[in-house]
Every structure is written in structure tokens, then in C-alpha cells.
Write a structure and sequence with these properties.
Layout (H helix, E strand, L loop, with lengths): L1 E4 L7 H9 L2 H13 L4 E4 L8 H15 L4 E4 L3 H10 L6 E7 L8 H12 L3 E6 L10 H17 L7 E4 L13 H12 L8 E3 L12 H14 L4 E4 L4 H13 L9 H8 L1
Parallel strand pairs: 1-2, 1-8, 2-3, 3-4, 4-5, 5-6, 6-7
The structure holds (6S)-5,6,7,8-tetrahydrofolate.
């Protein structure tokens, strides 16, 4: 599993406050803790409160890079905010540009812009693309898969390796009225998306979206993660500080034959991180 740590996001009160106070320590501590917990990438999202999103993205990237060299996942639906982050990033170990829809009413070319930026950032740069287009997030399985197919074929047309592509089927809060059919639809879409190319594109989700506003958040997140891993999910934006969730990932990898079984498989997994 390619785990992307979710915590450096202006959506969280303490990160929002740290951004407002230009308090690097809070950000650096989160970077270090999430790296130690086993994050392959650190998601960096300025949130909606910062007036200067481009400057804030740069400040976050610089603050993180002072303490660790964990690859970053620059998270914004605005190409200019991603571009600002890329100006100051050290992308030697890789970077993910997160996230663009297939297209947008106000910006038909947005996906092309992310591909171009990824190409400039180096051969290890990847992109997360949302199964979403100018009509929004599709509610049914077929439209999700159709958009994913368009994403994959567009990447291929542009010579962008599908192994650098992460398809995000977009998880919405299960608590939202009428949203309870979505998790099931997403799993069915995943069944098909893994066959869109060979090698398959990666699949990822923002797992914590699922339980926003709900009780038993960790339980809801964990059960869905296990279900999705069994359907081919190989990456997720998660709370890597949730030890129960990390143990689930280790166990799922072992059961999917990605890690060898030994009586100490949990410990062995933790040691590889
Ligand atoms: N897909 C992609 N990127 C994404 C998402 C996605 N990036 C952002 C988000 N979704 C994934 N990250 C989070 C981070 C935090 C929460 C959910 C998803 C979260 N936050 C608490 C809440 O809203 O209840 C904040 C609580 C607090 O303030 O302490 O749940 O889907 N590609």
C-alpha cells in the first residue's frame, strides 16, 4: 500500500492556526510523526482559510523539507497552487500532484496542466486524478468507470505512464443523506478500473472523507479500507497515526500475499517502515 498521510491539511484546526501564526513547529512535528508512522508521502493541503494559497503552499513545503525528506503529495485543485509548491520542492524522491478532475467547466485543460507539471517535476512525479468531470461527481458505477477510462486513455495519448497515474473514485461521507449506496458503487467501479490498462493505474481514495461527521470513525474507515484493498485499492490518503488502521494495512497486505506470513508479521511490517 502506498500510504499518503492526511494530517498536514488546513482543514484541521491546529494546522490552520499554525498557518495563521506562521508556526513551523506544529507542521514539522506532524511531518516527522507521520513519517515515523510509515507514510510514503505527506499530503500538503493549505485548506480554504489562507488568503494567499500559493505562498502558504510554499511555506508548508519549505517547513516540512527542513525536517524530513519524505516525498510530498501537493494537494490542491488549483494548478497555480501546485505550481507554486513545485517551485520550492525537492522532488528527487518523487512527488504526487493531487488532485485534478478529468475536466472542469471553468478549465477544460486542467488535467493537461497537471500532466505537464508532473513531466517537468521529473520521471518519478505522479498525479492523482479524480473520477469527476465538468458535470461533477457521478453517482453511478458506469459513469465513474467511463470517466476513469477517459483519464487512462488521455494519459496514454500523452505518453504519460499509467504507473504514474492514481485514479481516485472519490469517497463521500456516508452520513450524507442518500449517500449510503456510494461505498458499494465505488467498490464495483474499482473492480473494473484495475483492468483499464496493463500495467493497471494505481487506485487511491481520501479514506477519512467516508466517516466525516459520523460516530465510530476509525471503525468505518478501517472496514471500508479492508473491503477496498480486496478490490484492488493499492494506495490511500489516511490517518497514519491511527495504529489500528496501520495494523489493518499490514494484515491486509499479508492476506493479499504482498508480505510474507510469519508469526511476527505485524512487527516485521512495522520494521520495514
Ligand atoms: N481525494 C484526494 N485528495 C483528498 C481527498 C480525497 N485530499 C483531502 C481529503 N480528501 C483527504 N484528507 C482528509 C483530511 C482530513 C479529513 C478528511 C480527509 C477529516 N478532517 C476532520 C473532519 O473534517 O472531521 C477535521 C477535524 C479537525 O478539525 O480536527 O476528516 O478524497 N485525492
Amino acid at each position: 500500500m502506498i500510504l499518503i498521510a492526511e494530517r498536514i491539511n488546513g482543514m484541521f484546526t491546529n494546522v490552520k492556526q499554525a498557518i495563521a501564526d506562521k508556526d513551523k513547529k506544529v507542521i514539522q512535528e506532524l511531518a516527522k510523526k507521520q513519517t515515523d508512522a510509515g507514510a510514503a508521502y505527506l499530503d500538503v493541503n493549505v485548506g480554504t482559510a489562507a488568503a494567499d494559497q500559493e505562498g502558504t503552499m510554499q511555506w508548508l513545503v519549505e517547513a516540512i523539507q527542513e525536517t524530513c525528506s519524505t516525498p510530498l503529495c501537493l494537494d490542491s485543485q488549483k494548478p497555480d497552487v501546485i505550481a507554486a509548491g513545485l517551485k520550492v520542492i525537492n522532488a528527487q524522491n518523487g512527488v504526487i500532484l493531487n488532485s485534478t478532475p478529468l475536466n472542469k467547466k471553468s478549465d477544460e485543460e486542467i488535467f493537461d496542466k497537471y500532466i505537464e507539471m508532473a513531466n517537468q517535476a521529473g520521471p518519478k512525479a505522479s498525479i492523482i486524478v479524480l473520477t469527476m468531470d465538468k458535470n461533477g461527481v457521478p453517482q453511478d458505477i458506469n459513469n465513474r468507470v467511463a470517466i476513469a477510462a477517459e483519464i487512462v486513455s488521455k494519459a496514454m495519448e500523452k505518453g504519460f505512464d499509467t504507473q504514474r497515474l492514481f485514479i481516485d473514485t472519490i469517497v463521500l461521507p456516508v452520513k450524507v443523506p442518500n449517500a449510503q449506496a456510494q461505498p458499494g458503487s465505488i467498490l464495483s467501479a474499482m473492480d473494473q478500473i484495475q483492468y483499464l490498462s496493463d500495467p493497471a493505474p494505481h487506485m487511491t481514495i481520501g479514506l477519512s472523507n467516508l466517516s466525516q461527521g459520523a460516530s465510530q470513525r476509525s471503525l468505518i474507515n478501517r472496514v471500508f479500507l479492508a473491503m477496498a484493498i480486496s478490490r484492488g485499492l493499492d494506495s490511500a490518503i489516511v490517518d497514519v497515526l491511527d495504529q489500528d488502521l496501520m495494523n489493518l494495512v499490514a494484515t491486509a497486505e499479508m492476506l493479499m500475499n504482498k508480505q510474507i506470513y510469519s508469526d511476527s508479521f505485524l512487527k516485521a511490517y512495522q520494521l520495514t517502515k
